[in-house]
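Researcher: I'd like a structural prediction for the single chain below. Treat it as a standalone chain; there are no partners to consider.
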Amino acid sequence: MTNKYEDIEGLNRLLIRAYTQNPTDDWVKISHKLFGYMDDPFLAGQIQNLGRLDSFIRLYEPLPNDLDEITNNFFFLSFIRTLSDLWIIGVYEILRTSKINDVALKSIQAEFAMLRNELAKHQISGKNKFRFPDLGAQHQGNNFQLIYKYLKPDESGGTEKVISRIELSNQLIEGCLKIMGSTE
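Model: Treating it as a single chain, here is the predicted structure.
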């Protein structure tokens, strides 16, 4: 039986590997520049933490293409899925509490809000209608990628949208850096 500190050392190695393979430099820039748009100085650190979580998820999020490998790693993949859900909810809260008034970022914020409602409340955004989150995977290169399906309310009742967490992250990073004039 291993002791818990050996497990922590193993997890620490995984986190360091994620950080070195997927640097969080853009998240640090975003946290420093968004600092002026927030009432709570604690949120800048939270943005950096969400960046570290993004790096970790990016390393392990591409799902294996082999059903046996998915079955053998079910608990770890379920853990990655949970982290992905929590990342979406955390980013939503950062965007909700910021004072940024940019049209492009508001569009991204609206996507996070719709996903967050389905993940956290199990209801369609803007309606008190139950809807269980529709989760899945789509083929991306040699692996599968986690995707989220959500209902975007409209006059006809709703249009189903599909987006991956990585796409959400990329849109958010690009949008934040663009409005801050730091696209290098």
